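Regression test attached.
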Amino acid sequence: MTLKSITQEKIFAAATQAFEEKGFAGARMQEIAARAGINQALLHYYFRSKEKLFDAVFAALAATMFDKLFGCFSNDLPLERKLQMFYNEHISFLQEHPHLPTFVLNEINQNPQRLAKIFGAERIDLMVQNVFRQLDDEIQSGNIRPVDKTQLFINVIALSMFPFLARGVLEMLFQQNVNFNDVIERRKTELAQFIMNAVKNK
Amino acid sequence: MTLKSITQEKIFAAATQAFEEKGFAGARMQEIAARAGINQALLHYYFRSKEKLFDAVFAALAATMFDKLFGCFSNDLPLERKLQMFYNEHISFLQEHPHLPTFVLNEINQNPQRLAKIFGAERIDLMVQNVFRQLDDEIQSGNIRPVDKTQLFINVIALSMFPFLARGVLEMLFQQNVNFNDVIERRKTELAQFIMNAVKNK
DNA sequence: GTCTATAGAAGGATAGAC
DNA sequence: GTCTATCCTTCTATAGAC
């Protein structure tokens, strides 16, 4: 997606907000037009249909999310430092885009083939294999137990993403006792240690 | 909700499926009627509106989810055994209701006050405090480090729920290499050890 | 490019017969 | 209780003037 005009950018920003918050089915073209300060006709002039507008937004957001996710892993630090950096960067990123995981995960669950259109299978496999290779190195060098890499990978991202997926529930469970942002903030520094304790050789 | 007639049960079952899979905004009354083998008029005869039908379904599903979640913690086993039992039971439950976490979490994020209508604040606090008290005991007796109980609680449920929230993404990331159900199955036995390693005193 | 006006489709809800 | 037929509102999309 290349955004050529100011109006197009405004539409795109408005659509991003609306789709992120309410999903494809819940978002309304009228609301998007209003947020962009235009009318529906102009909306359709730029993006021919709701579906096409959604595709454009989804492609951009999914790419952002996955690039950030795997980008945080692309360095040659030892695992503990890598995790510290990952959680710090990744959670900071999610704080700025709190609806992103819910949006991307839901829409992919609704329509799995959407993702394949954006990332080729090869590119995905490359990113995952890169992470796995790094974990293999750690195992080889005896820094961590010979863990199941798939499971560990899931655990690592579960711990950063889950609170954003479950925010409403968590706020209700803990009520006035705890502040959501404080809880999130602490995770930036504590999760790396949590993981390391779980997997390191003793 | 007390279901008085067969038709009412069929509607309720059909609505449960539809809402779980597509959410409130995405589900269609026509589709629910069809799945229940009736027409829309009859649907409205039993449940006056989509909103009311949704409320009934949501109340039942949210109650199911939270009862199961906290129910798995209600025993006096030592932490490691408790976690083994929790993950085994909870993940088995989620395998039977794979859409439940996505549905409940999303709808609460969309509309947080819905949950308060179902569970009173006191009841919620009681369930959480009960779990926290158990963790305090473990800390007192020196079995585990003096961890942040809120964080640990989040981590424990994140690890069982996240794969179901992210199923579409995970299936794409791992593609033909891994089978989703196999991955889930292994978590029933491995997660308790993962947590214990992370938190136990050495 | 942007607007007003409106067409057209889809979805939720109701009237009334049986 | 259950159906057919239909209404009404909401939403997406387009026509046509400027």
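Expected vs. actual: identical. The longest helix of chain A spans residues 50-71.
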